[in-house]
Each structure stands twice: as structure tokens, then as C-alpha cells.
Design goal:
By secondary structure, the protein is of the alpha+beta class. 23% of the residues lie in helices and 37% in strands. It is globular and about 70 Å long.
């Protein structure tokens, strides 16, 4: 997908915390001003709601899942403009943040958009971490309904209110196996090609390389005869 550099270390985390703090202060102020008209049960419910924001946290079932996710987390911007569908050079921003989703654990939300249209994402997905034969895998989950996918837009900034999805609303598209690169980063790649209909291709592969200073991805599409029809050349990234 993109060869990108982090906009600012922990940007998403800092923004999430600042937005959360503002929300808590607003809720607290509202609760305080309305207290004379609230019964005891309502006041307790409001207090618990505020407390849930203050104590919200992601718990990873495997420590290494959290390590990989922490490297992803934040907002990243392309280091150089890339060509859009019309051949025009544009910058893209990709944001990753851990979220909680119904029936899923160890999940990260990813949202990609043009830098000049951040409110109109070009891609949104959930990334679920799990293990098979002691190897970390990341499964990409797409939301089936476009309207429901729109409910996720911008929610990386306030993951406490991330919309809940039932498993039937999600479609698994591909898995990537994750391995350490030996220098504190990770490399992920599909173990085999997956079916696709994108851009005239019949199957595709995907790669992801992540460190504290950079993130690179490369998707490649292949035709019926196995010849590459889109994506960077072997050993290259966008």
C-alpha cells in the first residue's frame, strides 16, 4: 500500500487522550450542573460512565501482540506523494489504533485517507491478531455494509466509543504471518496468494514491514496465468 513515515510518535494516543480528557471534563461538568435534577441512580450511572473513560485500556492476550500493535499505533503520512487513480500525486495518511470489538480480541482499527480529505477514508478495516502453530498472524476483516463501515470513520480518536459489530457483519479477506526482523521491528506477509477481483487480478499477496521509524507495505495482484498485473516489482515497495 504505502511507504510512510510516522507523523508524530504516539500521535493517535496523544489525540485520543486529549479528546477523552475533554469528554470526561464535559461529562463531569454536565453531571455536576444537572445534579439537582438527577436522582441517585442517574448520578451513579453518570459517574460510572465517566470512570469507564478514565480506566479504559486494551488488554492483549499475548504480550507480543501488544508489541507489534504499539509499533503500528499512530498516524503515518506518505514520505513522498503517490499517484491516485487519476494519476495525480497525493499524500496519504494511515492511522492505526487498538480497539475493542464484539466477539474479537487483540484488534487494531486501520483507516487510510488522502491527506486533503481525512473525513473520507479510502480504506477501513479491523486487524485481528492471533496465533497458529506459535506463529503470530494478522487477519484483515472488512465490514460488509458500507453504511456500517462509515460508523468507524474517525473513531481512532475515541476508541472507547468504537461501534460494535457482530461477527456476521465482518468478512475475513487475508492473513499475514508476522515475524521479528531481528532489529526490533517486524515483517508480515501472506503465506500464499488470496483470491481477489481488484484491478483485474484473480489473486493477490500482501507484505508489511514496520519499525519505530517507518512502515512499508506492498500489495501485488496476479492474473489467471500467474503474471503480475499490478503492484511493485519483486523486492520493491511503494
Amino acid at each position: 500500500m504505502f511507504d510512510v513515515a510516522r507523523v508524530a510518535s504516539g500521535f493517535a494516543t496523544k489525540l485520543t487522550r486529549s479528546v477523552t480528557a475533554a469528554a470526561v471534563l464535559t461529562l463531569s461538568a454536565g453531571a455536576a450542573s444537572a445534579q439537582p435534577a438527577m436522582d441517585e441512580t442517574s448520578q451513579e450511572a453518570a459517574a460510572k460512565f465517566v470512570e469507564s473513560f478514565q480506566t479504559w485500556a486494551i488488554e492483549w492476550s499475548e504480550p507480543e501482540f501488544g508489541e507489534v500493535a504499539s509499533l503500528m499505533q499512530g498516524s503515518w503520512k506518505t514520505s513522498e506523494p503517490i499517484l491516485d487513480a487519476e494519476g495525480e500525486p497525493v499524500d496519504f495518511v494511515v492511522t492505526f489504533t487498538p480497539v475493542k470489538a464484539n466477539g474479537l480480541s487483540d484488534t487494531v482499527y486501520v483507516e487510510a485517507a488522502r491527506a486533503d480529505a481525512l473525513d473520507q477514508p479510502t480504506h477501513q478495516a479491523l486487524l485481528e491478531f492471533y496465533k497458529r502453530d506459535s506463529v503470530i498472524r494478522i487477519r484483515t476483516l472488512e465490514v460488509r455494509e458500507t453504511v456500517r463501515a462509515g460508523a468507524m470513520t474517525g473513531m481512532w480518536a475515541l476508541p472507547q466509543l468504537f461501534p460494535k459489530f457482530s461477527p456476521d457483519e465482518l468478512l475475513g479477506t487475508l492473513d499475514m504471518e508476522v515475524r521479528s526482523d531481528g532489529s526490533g521491528g517486524y515483517v508480515a506477509a501472506t503465506p500464499h496468494p488470496y483470491p481477489t477481483a481488484r484491478g483485474g487480478a484473480y489473486e493477490m499477496t500482501s507484505e508489511l514491514m514496520i519499525t519505530r521509524d517507518g512502515l512499508k507495505t506492498a500489495d501485488r495482484g496476479f492474473g489467471k496465468d500467474g503474471s503480475q498485473v499490478w503492484g511493485p516489482g519483486a523486492g520493491e515497495t511503494y
